[in-house]
């Protein structure tokens, strides 16, 4: 359990009803907007990502930030207002990328850290909440290290059958406390758990 004096580390992820963050071939087309998770986390000043997720994340949000009226990579439509707002917020916030393999990151305020101990140190420093963007492997490893304070899941009404399971890398039993369950008009359910 994390110290009450440190800032919160909150993971917010989009997940299918059967617990997958992407389909068997990496499909993410079932999530209509990747910006909606940020709305669930108040008072954020740092974004945390894993090294596998970062390259596509950086390319996608950098493209939206640079050209909000153009179709970005991995998408077939122009960005929504909430996606443009996310790109603007993300451009201002420091990004911490946990990776042992990446050599560099191109996001304006991004830095690579090589191990969880460095992330623990950053969490203990004064500041606002830290938003754990993902991916699933990073979230699992941070749950294993007791670094996640809250888990916010946007559960979509879709069954993928196979894919990247959200909790496949968790190596211990976790008991979570349900803080809030909220349904949306789109049929999604937003679940907030405290670890």
What can you tell me about this protein's structure?
This protein is 22% helix and 28% strand. With 195 residues, the protein is of the alpha/beta class. It has a single domain, classed as Dihydrofolate Reductase, subunit A (3-Layer(aba) Sandwich). An 8-stranded mixed β-sheet has the order 5-4-3-6-1-7-10-9, with helices on one face. A two-stranded antiparallel ribbon has the order 2-8. Strand 9 and strand 10 (189-194) form a beta hairpin.
Please identify the structural class as seen in this structure.
alpha/beta
Percent of residues in helices comes to 10-25%
Using the 3D structure, state the CATH architecture. 3-Layer(aba) Sandwich
**SSE run:** EEEHHEEHEHEEEE
What's the CATH topology name? Dihydrofolate Reductase, subunit A
Q: Count the domains.
A: 1
Q: Which spans have pLDDT < 50 for at least 5 consecutive residues?
A: none
Strand-residue fraction?
25-35%
Please state the overall shape, judged from the principal axes of the Cα atoms: globular
Largest beta sheet: strand ordering: 5-4-3-6-1-7-10-9
Give the beta-strand count: 10
User: Which CATH first-tier class would you pick?
Assistant: Alpha Beta
Compute the average pLDDT. Answer: 88
Radius of gyration: 16 Å
Count of helical segments? 4
